[in-house]
Write a structure and sequence with these properties.
There is one protein chain. By secondary structure, the protein is α+β, with helices and mostly antiparallel strands. The chain folds into two domains: 171 residues, 2-Layer Sandwich (Ribosomal Protein S5, domain 2); 140 residues, GHMP kinase, C-terminal domain (Alpha-Beta Plaits), CATH 3.30.70. Helices cover 35% and strands 26% of the residues. The protein contains eight helices and 14 strands. The strands form three sheets. Strands 1, 4, 5, 6, 7, 8, 9 and 14 form an eight-stranded mixed sheet that branches. Strands 11-12-10-13 form a four-stranded antiparallel sheet. Strands 2-3 form a two-stranded antiparallel ribbon. A hairpin with a 2-residue loop joins strand 5 and strand 6. Helix 2 crosses helix 3. The longest helix has 20 residues. It is globular. The two termini are 19 Å apart. 45% of the residues are buried. Bound molecules: (3R)-3-hydroxy-3-methyl-5-(phosphonooxy)pentanoic acid. (3R)-3-hydroxy-3-methyl-5-(phosphonooxy)pentanoic acid (PMV) binds next to helix 4. It is an enzyme of class 4 (lyase). It comes from Salinibacillus aidingensis. Pfam families: MDD_C, MVD-like_N. Belongs to the diphosphomevalonate decarboxylase family.
Length: 328
């Protein structure tokens, strides 16, 4: 009754922003991401009749009550899905600098969905795994797959048609993502809260929804034809639109800090010098820069001159869910 699974984080190039159902985590729009090789979570789950409660060890230490409660309520869904009542011991090792503000919920819930179902002897297809991962954290449904993946929002109320599908495998196109670590104060507003406020109060939200379908079509053409400039332009424009919806919310908010904007400006300077670099930003201050392998070093050299840059992590396209023998 034990299994270990490894899942990588992903960066959305067309963002998921807004839910139509909070409980099942059903999104308002399709989104598209690239799974990254550098950041991942490995999780071991062991179900045991003898346990009186779920236990959760995170990076070698007992998790906080609030973290444990989140994991336990997710395991309730898995227990209900599998028709069992046993508690589980969960051990998770995160190769994502979480404290630095890089999101780990995508790799975390994708690994937990895979390890817990496998531990219960279920042999699930990727679509079902993606549906289950989605119910932990929306973006996790895309981390089931490697390379580029699209989360189809679906239309059913039960969420049975809301899952990710692979668009291009990780070996087909070597694009790079530089994750730029900036000053990392604790997030003022979780993505969950931020989306909710935006959907409920921002007059710009309808504009976001209007634009996103065309941007998805555009980015899928860019991927199919390996047109990097087209990919970068649409990804950057999509990120800016998502952040614009927040400025229109009531009360207004933003995840950007002055360092965020300094890096955005630097990327623009790089482009003015003929280097193909584009940025994208999630629900936090850090910036991810999309580039091609031949430009990676030049971009690093420029960024290292900026005093607010605390670290640069180079990422390549990464794999989907993998099962392992044991925790590393
Ligand atoms: O899955 P969550 O709740 O962590 O939300 C992710 C939201 C964004 O990172 C901003 C966009 C995305 O599609 O990943």
């Amino acid at each position: 009754m034990k299994a270990v699974a490894k899942a990588h984080t992903n960066i959305a190039l067309i963002k998921y922003w807004g839910k139509r159902n909070d409980e099942l985590i059903l999104p308002m729009n399709n989104s598209l991401s690239l799974t990254l090789d550098h950041f991942y979570t490995t999780t071991e789950v062991q179900f045991d009749e003898a346990l009186q409660t779920d236990t959760f060890i995170f990076n070698g230490e007992t998790a906080s009550d609030s973290e444990s409660a989140k994991i336990s309520s997710y395991l309730d869904r898995i227990r209900q899905f599998a028709g069992v009542q046993m508690y589980a011991a969960v051990r998770s090792v995160n190769h994502v600098p979480t404290s630095a503000g890089f999101a780990s919920s995508a790799s975390g819930f994708a690994a937990l969905a895979a390890a817990s179902t496998k531990a219960l002897g279920l042999d699930l297809d990727r679509k079902t795994l993606s549906i289950l991962a989605r119910q932990g954290s929306g973006s996790a449904c895309r981390s089931v797959f490697g390379g580029f993946a699209e989360w189809e929002k679906g239309s059913r109320t039960d969420g049975s048609d809301s899952y990710a599908v692979p668009i291009m495998s990780k070996t087909e196109w070597d694009v790079r993502v530089l994750s730029v670590l900036l000053e990392s104060n604790e997030k003022p507003i979780s993505s969950r809260k931020g989306m909710k406020r935006t959907v409920e109060t921002s007059p710009f939200y309808s504009g976001w929804l209007e634009a996103v379908d065309h941007e998805l079509k555009e980015i899928k053409t860019a991927i199919r034809t390996k047109d990097f400039e087209r990919l970068g332009k649409v990804a950057e424009a999509n990120a800016l639109k998502m952040h614009a919806t927040m400025l229109g919310s009531h009360p207004p908010f933003t995840y950007w800090q002055s360092s965020t904007m300094a890096v955005m400006e630097e990327v623009q300077h790089l482009r003015d010098k003929g280097i193909q670099a584009y940025y994208t930003i999630d629900a936090g201050p850090n910036v991810k820069i999309l580039c091609l392998p031949e430009d990676e070093q030049k971009i690093r050299d420029e960024l290292e001159n900026l005093e607010m840059v605390k670290g640069i992590y180079g990422c390549r396209p990464g794999p989907g869910i993998e099962y392992k023998e044991k925790l590393p």
